[in-house]
Request: fold
Amino acid sequence: MTERPSVLIGDDGVGRCGWVGNDAEYRRYHDQEWGRPLRDDRALFEKLCLEGFQAGLSWITILRRRPAFRAAFAGFDAPTVAAFTDDDVERLLADAAIIRHRGKITATIGNARATLALDGSLTDLIWGFAPATRAEPLTGLADVPAITPESEALSKELRSRGYRFVGPTTVYALMQSSGLVNDHVVGCHLAPSPGESLPA
Reply:
């Protein structure tokens, strides 16, 4: 099996993290979303749920179905999703445009209810576990962690509040995609400079 390169130079001459490959949607996601700080409760709830749906699947599978997920889950409006009933679960299980996994569907509804029960914002909860900025950017894909002490701590906190499908690996993927960490590697045009702080 050929090892994936850490950086690929696109046909536009721009270096990007090697996981992007040649997929146009992955390129857009990498350039415009992944690693950019996200501080919006609705958007973070959506990312949290979609990362849970991704467990065991490739992210591009979820990304291509994101419009269908948004339609099925009322734009990931937590109060609306929290009010979903058993009939909604059956409706979602019949929706071939999303991932029809009963456990993940019911977890999303439960996670909406857990979000409403928070004594503060989901943004404050998640960003409270942002790690310190790395002294140096990651040199290659092999250096990108799957789990960190911060993702383990956030996973534990979320589970204590009733969230499901929020294991430490899933949570670290959330931290990457929502910009709590910048895991763009050296050679990628979005890699941070040494000691660079996260954007506000």
The radius of gyration is 17 Å. The CA atoms of residues 51 and 59 lie 8 Å apart. The beta strands are 7-9, 15-17.
